[in-house]
Design brief:
Blueprint (H helix, E strand, L loop, with lengths): L6 H4 L11 E3 L4 E4 L5 E3 L3 E7 L7 E6 L8 E2 L2 E3 L6 H13 L3 E16 L2 E14 L11 E7 L12 H13 L1
Length: about 180
């Protein structure tokens, strides 16, 4: 897989008029000198669920899809347009684990760079402490292959590729 590139390198033509006169404007936008179109590479919001079991272990999902297929992640995903972070988390939990969220409390956020289709997608990952309706007999679905429970201090950081997830786990370990 080729390394993902910053959107400034990917976007070569104006998306509005097709001109080649698309110029970088600062480090996060491009401006068309021909028609005036100006596009900002804004941060995408994503959510991550920290779910404890009764033994004080946290749930991690083994990814079924690229990027980082086969590696670990917190359950969660991107926030859809016009959706709250809370609704996105409840939807992702339903899609990935087939259960409902009983309670969620905001924990922290960290920025991340998510490689997708050859491009670096800038995200802000919002982590919540989550209680589910049930954590037994869950069926992993959607973009997760299986779930595992680990003591937060014993997670192998090499298996957690996203820098934001590493940072969330570090912050969690500081609080325990
Ligand atoms: Zn243009």
């Amino acid at each position: 897989m080729t390394e993902a590139q910053h959107p400034n390198k990917i976007f070569k033509f104006c998306p509005s008029c097709g001109s080649t006169q698309l110029r970088q404007s600062g480090d996060r936008s491009k401006n068309c000198l021909h028609c005036g179109f100006h596009y900002f590479f804004n941060t995408s919001a994503a959510v991550a669920a920290i779910i404890f079991d009764p033994e004080g272990r946290i749930m991690l999902a083994r990814r079924a899809v690229e990027p980082h297929k086969g590696q670990l992640d917190f359950p969660g995903g991107f926030v859809d347009p016009n959706e709250t972070a809370e609704d996105a988390l409840a939807r992702e939990i339903q899609e990935e684990l087939g259960t409902k969220v009983n309670k969620m409390d905001y924990f922290c956020s960290f920025p991340n760079t998510y490689p997708f289709a050859g491009m670096e997608v800038m995200t802000l990952d919002l982590a919540f402490l989550v209680e589910l309706e049930t954590i037994s007999d869950l069926t992993p679905m959607d973009d997760i292959a299986s779930i595992e429970f680990h003591h937060p201090s014993e997670v192998n950081m090499d298996e957690l590729p996203a820098q934001s997830m590493k940072n969330i786990l570090k912050k969690l370990n500081e609080r325990i």
